Every structure is written in structure tokens, then in C-alpha cells.
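Reading a protein record of the kind used here takes only a little practice. The record below shows the convention in full.

——
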Amino acid sequence: MSDPDIHTDNVIAEDDQRPAPASRRGRGVFAVVVLLLLALCAITTITQSYLGSGDDEVIRSIARNLECLQCHTELIPDFSRDIVHDPFMAERCTTCHTPHGEIRTETVLEGVRMAWGRIRTLVQWLPLKIALDVFDTGEQTADEIDVDRIKSTTTTEVADKPSELVLPGNDLCWMCHGGMGPKLGEAYTHAPFMNGNCVDCHDPHASDFRGMLAMDVRDLCVTCHRVGPEMDRDQVHPSFAARVCLDCHDPHASQYRGILVDSQRNLCFTCHPSVARLSRMGVQHHPFQYDNCTGCHEPHGSNFRPLLITAQPGVCYLCHDDIRQDFLKPSHHPVGTISLNCSDCHDPHATNYAGLLYAEDNDICYACHRVPIQASYDKSAHRSTPCWRCHTPHGSDWGPLLKGPQPEVCFPCHERRHFDDRKGGYYNHPVRPVYYDVNAKSRLSCTSSCHGPHGTEHTRMLRYYDAPFDGNCLICHGVVPGKRVGIDF
């Protein structure tokens, strides 16, 4: 092989090692651009199909609400609040509000479609135009596509008119919250709910508080309900002091008085289990048994403990006026003083003993009269006789708290014929108060100087000496020189 041939081969080899022409690189870039354009075309076509097949009213609503937010810019921050109302979040203002005017010529929808068509065309074809201009492939350019030809002109004639709710009051809210409607038929309703003023308590757009409340519930209720005087009382119910009103009250309506969330008994028992256990006892106070805790207690605050509507015994006299009259009698327990009150003997809720007493028979009396009465009474002949057989617990016209005068109060157990007169004479000693007891310096009775009704150290419950000796008699019937008293021996 000759030298020229070798030289030629070397030249050819060198030519093969040179970079590829610019046209090859351009074709690669063009292919990538075409693929991107095809992807954009697919996306815009799918979106176009979705919008085209959608509800025209939905599209119209979105367009209108975008217009609303152009003026009501103060509402835009509400989208970032903790709780956003669904229609507001979806930017469907006209779900609840009418537009600010009456649309007479409506071409807004067509305008949206035209605008979207223009954007779609630009996205589909403008990048292609740029690519073709760069590479000058001789293909059809974007100038040949009359983009201006798809522009639309829209005219909307709107008469001035204020925006209104599409339905009045609660009717609008019940479009979505229909479950609240039946609550209007309940016995007790909250005034704003009854009158259809939902927005008095709720923000219709968005809120930072649960239930879309206009403010924290602890502040919301007190805007209408004057609670200052109750807060200033000596004792305030803890839940009321914390202003957690919804722990006890339903904000809309309830079948329970005071729009409570439950019956008074069940509601109070949730925080007062020590009282709840009393509901199983045999004798229950009427207001406690029949769901009237507030008949005695203030639910918010009181100057009388424990949250009573007035002090004892006044709170008891509201129902027991006959008992009030007993305490006006000459002999009565010192109820209403610092030493004694109704609840010292009676449980105001329930017990297992008659009269709501804390204990049965004499045990309730021994709580105060243990010394000196119990020690002697339990050893006496009267020990099987309950105190209430002779005494009334509240007040009496005969002291000490006797159910009747002596000797009548003794006759139910001691036969009258032994102690009463018979044709001007007596079978036994006269004990009528028409006689005078010179020892006791009082009217003569069974207990003035002779007997101790609660027991004594002597036989026959005599006060001073054992029977049958005469010592007890001689206290009154002894002969004193110069003074004749009783019988001369």
C-alpha cells in the first residue's frame, strides 16, 4: 500500500473522531420538547374534559366566590383558622349568600371557558412555536394559529341589590344541620336557637374554638348572662367559677328544666358521688327523690353553705311551714342558733330511718343528751319507751317539749284511775297542777318533786328516797314548828 493511501486512511480516521453535527443534538432536544408538550396537552385535555363534564352551577359558584374574595379580603385569613366551615372552605359563598345583585345577562360561564381555552392553547402551542423558531424546521408556526380568534368578550349587567341569606335564620343552617331541627320541639330551648340567631354564638365562616363558636365558651355565655353577682357570693360552684357552662347546659335545647344536659340528680351525681349513694336508701327527701336539687341549692353561687338558697332553718320552712310554727311555741329545741340546726338531726337527702333521721329512736336524742340522761334512762323502767312517746322533737306548749300536760302525758302508759279523782277523792296522790308543790315551788306534777322520768338511783324512779319509806313524802309533808304544811303525823 502506497504512502498516499496510508495518509488517506489516517485522514478518514481523524474525521470519524470529530463531534457529531449540531443538527443531531438539536433533534434530541426537539424530541424532549415534543414529549413535554404531549404531556401538557394530555393534562390540559383531561382538565378540559373534567370541567366540561362538571356541573355548570359549581363552576359558576366558584367564579362568583372568587369575585367575593376580591372585595372581602378580610375573610382570607379565616382559611388558616383551626376550624373552617365546609362551604367557606370550598369557596362556595353562594351556598349561603345571594350575589350582590340580580344577574340579567349572564355570560360569566362562557368567559371562564374562553379564558381557560386561551390558557390551554398558549400552554399547548406557545412552547411549540418557540421550539420551531429555534430549530427552523419549516413546520407550521404559531403565527399561523390565530390565538386572538379564541378570545372572548363577556358582558354582565348587574342591578344594585344587597346580598342576603338564601334562606331565613335556622332554615339555612338546617340545610346541612338538619339533625338540630327536632330539638325545637323539646320542652326548654335556648333563646338564640329558638329565634334562629345561630350566628349569635357561631361564626359562619371559621373559628379557633370548637363548635365554630364566636369566642371561647367561657367568655361567650357571659356576654348575655349576667353572672357577676353570683360570682361575687361567699361560695361559688366550682364548675360555675371555671365558666364551663356546657358541662351542665345544652346550648340549644333540652327536655330538662334549665336546658340541662341531664336530669338534676344524674347531673349532680357526676361530681357528688357521696350524695349519689344515698339514692339507694329507704327514706328519701321529696326534692332529692323527684329531681329538684335546685329546690334547696343554688347551682351557681350562694351566701349560705352548702350552696343553699337561704340559711337553715329558713330553707326548710319553704316547704315545712307547719314546723316553723312548732318552733314558735313556748318550749322548743334551739333550732336556728349556733348550737343546733335541722341538718343536725335530719339528713337533707336520704336515710334509712323515718323522718330522715340520722339514727333510730333514742339514739338520735343521745347525740346531744348522752350525758346525763342516757346513763340513767337505759337502767330505768322507762328504758323500752322511746323518747318520742312523751316528747315532741320540734316545739310544744308544755315543757320540756312534752306532747301534752302532766299527768295526761303519762296516762297512755299509767292508768288514769290510779292518779285521778273519783267523786271528790283520789285512789292515789293527786298530781294536778291546781295544787302547789312547796318543795319545787311550782305547780304540782308527776315529776315536780316525786319522780324522775329519765331514771334515778332510787326505787320507783323516786327523786330523793327509796320506796316504800316516807322520806320522799316528808319533803313536803313534814311538820315544821309554827308552820303547818301537809299532814300532821
